[in-house]
Amino acid sequence: MKKEFKYAYIQKQIIPSAYAVIPIQSKAVQYGLGVFTGIRGNWNPKTKNLYIFRLEDHYKRLVDASNITGLKFDYSYPEFKKIITNLIKKNRAKEDIYIRVTIYSASTQLTPRFENDDDDMAIYMISLQDYFNTNEGLNVGISSWRRIDDDMISTKAKITGGYSNSALAKTEALKNGYDEAIFLNRDGKVCEATGANIFGIKNGIIFTPPLSSNNLDGITRRSMIEIFKKEMRLEVREEEIDRSALYTFDELFLTGTAAKIAWIKAVDRRIIGNDKEGKITQKIRLFFSEITLGNIKKYQKWITKIY
After folding, report:
1. Taking 80 as the threshold, does the pLDDT of residue 265 lie above it?
2. What 3-state class would DSSP assign to 243?
3. Residue 2 pLDDT > 80, yes or no?
4. Sign of the C-alpha dihedral, residues 50, 301, 232, 220?
5. b/e per residue, 203-216, with b = 16+ CB within 10 A?
6. Parallel, antiparallel, or unpaired: how do β-strands 138-142 and 260-267 relate?
7. What is the number of alpha carbons within 13 Å of residue 8 lying toward its C-beta?
8. Would you state the pLDDT for residue 55?
9. H or E element that contains 279
10. 149 phi and psi, to 5 degrees?
11. Which letter does DSSP use for residue 101 in this model?
């Protein structure tokens, strides 16, 4: 079990996590009406400080999600940043953490609709180092469940109810002996994992599905693309990927706030590359780790220091 911190934020106040509850009648429970973002905090033992990765980008994603759904999110970025910072300090967090921010419908009216008057923001924290155990690489399988389309439930917002799609695929993958599932979209093209984006490397060229494939515009994904282009001078192609092409990549890995960078060992029990973490994957994983720890000056624009 992941450690949960003592305090949470709900109804515009920091209170003990045990009391941060909502009614079972709320639309968040009954219909999954909410949007969320997950934020990483990385503890640097050398500087003895906690660094939040791309906090403003997470805020902007919540703004976009509220615009898409109609959920009310009326916090300015300085207000949002202050709440996050105060909550971390209240919990005295000095370790790697994951912060889950949810904008949810607290309304108890019996109708599935957005744009209610009593929408609220709730925040909790847990201690989290690695979401995936990647010491030996991930074994992933193509899911029989297709990824939802953006014209059904927006894939550009992390809508809580939409994650039943991910839950079905993840459960199937685990039952079939895999660590994770890979979605195909309606057209049979590679989309993403159940909570992470996917990258492939072939002959030194980086490939990742375009946003039009119904995958999330991941913040870590965007970071990877920028680092590959600016730091490693590698070509990045955002283009559709066939299922069979996954089997032929030299390297494959997942990216996400929780997942960080997790290399893939096999797809549908077909070994990828030389059965080891690829050189490019390892290089960017280590470089990205240094960024999130605040150790690379030019990327401190992405970092919010807490203490």
Report:
1. yes
2. helix
3. no
4. positive
5. eeebbbbebebbbb
6. parallel
7. 21
8. 98
9. helix 279-292
10. -90, 155
11. E
Q: What angle do CA 60, 61, 66 make, to 5 degrees?
A: 95
Amino acid at 237: R
Q: How far apart are CA 18 and CA 251, in angstroms?
A: 44
Give the separation between CA 199 and CA 253, rounded to whole angstroms: 5
d(CA 263, CA 277): 6
> What domains, with CATH codes, occur in the chain?
7-127 (3.30.470.10), 138-292 (3.20.10.10)
Q: What is the mean pLDDT of residues 7-12?
A: 97
Contacts of 305 (CB under 8 A, 6+ apart): 49, 50, 51, 294
- Please tell me the pTM assigned to this model: 0.95
Q: Work out the number of other CB atoms within 10 angstroms of the CB of residue 91.
A: 19
Residues 138-161 pLDDT 10s: 999 999 999 999 999 999 999 999
Q: In 3D, which of 293, 283, 289, 303 has the Cα closest to residue 231?
A: 283
Task: Yes or no: say if 106 and 22 are a contact pair by the CB < 8 Å rule.
Answer: yes
Q: How confident is the model at residue 132 (pLDDT cuts 50, 70, 90)?
A: confident
Above 90 in pLDDT, residue 282?
Answer: yes
The residue count for the chain: 307
Which residue spans within 203-259 are E strands per DSSP? 205-208, 236-238, 251-256
| Terminal C-alpha separation, the chain | 27
Query: Which pair of tokens denotes residue 27?
Result: 């639309």
Residue 1 has pLDDT above 90, yes or no: no
Confidence band, pLDDT 50/70/90 cuts, at residue 134: confident
Query: Could you tell me which residue, 135 or 24, shows the higher pLDDT?
Result: 24
Both tokens of residue 304? 């919010």
